[in-house]
Amino acid sequence: MQMMLRLLAVFGVALACSTQPVRAQVTDPNAAFTNEVIVAQLPGRSISALVTHRPGVTKFAHAIALFPGSPGYINLRVEDGEIRFGLRGNFLIRARRHFLEDGFLTAVIDAPSDHQVSFWHSYRASDRYGEDVKAVVDAVAKKFGALDWTFIGTSEGSVSAVHAARMVAPPARRVALTSSLVTPSFAGSGVRVSDVKQIIIPVLWAHHRDDPCSYTQYSRVKQYAEETKTPLVTVTGAGNVRGNPCDAFTQHGFVGMEIKTIKAILSWIRSGKVPADVSE
């Protein structure tokens, strides 16, 4: 009987251990594609890009530079042979594989090495930031050849995309602004109409009608589009919304509507024609 109790006690411990919650391994579907880090060296600093494309493809016609949201720096690096970076849940980073049609690659643009924390809007508007972005774009082109570049920013990354497009055209041919930050924040002024008016290449806005973030109001973006006479694609619908209003898995990050939103942007890239609004 005593032996039986000992066996039951051991079994009970084992059973208790087996029912403890286990953290599931999260698999990034973008890992199924080819990913590599390209670094441009400049005096006193560097700037890196995470390049993603379909496996086995060697010829490319289009490149899409992706500028992620707050805080804008991802500390992109290679450690022990593994690519490491932050902001994996960001709309543009998590959904970048959906841009990879035939002949396309994406390049997630990190902040320069000396602005991995102090990535203020005033710096993004500076001539030096234009030099930094131009350097990493040229480094990508050096490896993959002449490319038709589109710049895309989301949330606070729209600030980076606006200024990069203003200063790095060419080679940038067009810029898309998604979930744009149009209200000043602690980091700076956000996107201003005066900045957009300085861009000499085509501009497209894509914004969720129900974006809950107080810094990225749909009504103000619509006003900006009207003032600058640039087209706006309005997105409606969502799926599995979660998190705080300005988080990446709300309507602010086009959750549940990522593919349709990206397909609309891609059609604009290929045809130059303003796509229809996006809905479920």
Would you kindly provide a written description of the structure presented here, covering whatever features stand out?
The chain has 280 residues and is α/β, with parallel strands linked by helices. It has one domain: Alpha/Beta hydrolase fold, catalytic domain (Rossmann fold, 3-Layer(aba) Sandwich). The chain contains 8 helices and 10 strands. It has an 8-stranded mixed sheet, sandwiched between helices. A two-stranded antiparallel sheet has the order 4-5. β1 (34-42) and β2 form a beta hairpin. It is globular.
What is this structure's SSE topology?
Blueprint: H1 2-18, E1 34-42, E2 45-53, E3 62-67, E4 77-79, E5 82-84, H2 91-94, E6 104-109, H3 121-124, H4 127-144, E7 148-154, H5 157-167, E8 172-178, H6 193-197, E9 203-208, H7 218-228, E10 232-235, H8 258-271
Parallel strand pairs: 3-6, 3-7, 7-8, 8-9, 9-10
Antiparallel strand pairs: 1-2, 2-6, 4-5
From the 3D structure, determine the CATH topology: Rossmann fold
Query: How does the helix and strand content classify structurally?
Result: alpha/beta
Q: Helical region count?
A: 8
Q: State the helical fraction.
A: 25-40%
Strand portion, in percent? 15-25%
User: Using DSSP, what is the number of strands?
Assistant: 10
* CATH secondary-structure class: Alpha Beta
Rg from C-alpha positions?
22 Å
Shape: globular
Q: List SSEs in N-to-C order.
A: HEEEEEHEHHEHEHEHEH
Characterize the largest beta sheet: strand count, sense, and whether it forms a barrel. 8 strands, mixed
Low-confidence stretches: 1-25
In whole angstroms, the N-to-C terminal distance is 65 Å
